[in-house]
Amino acid sequence: MQLSLDSWPHLLALLLPLIISLLYLKKKQPTRAGDFKAYPLLGRFPHFVRNQHRLVEWSVDVAKRSPTHTTPFKAPGLPGVVITANPDNVEHIAKTSFANYPKGDHMAATIRDFLGHGIFNSNGEQWLWQRKAASYEFSKRSLRKFIVETVRSEVDERLLPLLEEAAAGRRALDMQHVLESFAFDNICHVTFGDDPGCLAKEGRAAPQAVEFARAYDYVENAVLLRFRPPEIFLWRIKRMLNVQVTKRQGPEDSLG
Q: HSE-up of 163 (CA within 13 Å, CB side)?
């Protein structure tokens, strides 16, 4: 059967109701859990920008909405990211097939100023020999005993008294700062053999230790900002131009 130009309007009239019905059904169909709108050219980048002040909470929301608790995230100019809260995926990535998931050049370059080529920022043989060395050290009974004693002392002599004093005086505490100080004291004591005393009562910590803790926190946050817009695009340019991350002056400003 041949169709002439005159028959096309009649054919379109027959197909139009079907097309409208399909579009209506598609519009009424619920969006799959975990999906979020991808914009032309920008991809899902606007979602990232809109939620960069609450990335952890947003990542949890995205993972919870997905039936598989896994959602890919792509945006122009950004490395591909997969958000997952699926235990099977986590075990596959972090344990059974760990060698197949290196940190990647983008991440390694971004945090190298902070972590160098250490175990948290290396791959392959470089990671393996560091892991073997760390595993050997941490398998020693004497080190395990020292860690337990260090943490117990920090809890009994500083953390619990601080919490009890705050509770008795009905005083609010910044628990994030408290736990960061608790962790920093323990890490420095175990790693460097020095106790900065960041969780000690005000005025009892050594000024140099307090300044070091502040510089460490500053550099850590400066590096983390490199994963967020606009720093994700600008930090390499700033380094080439020797532009500081912020206007704050101090020894930590050697990080560009």
A: 11
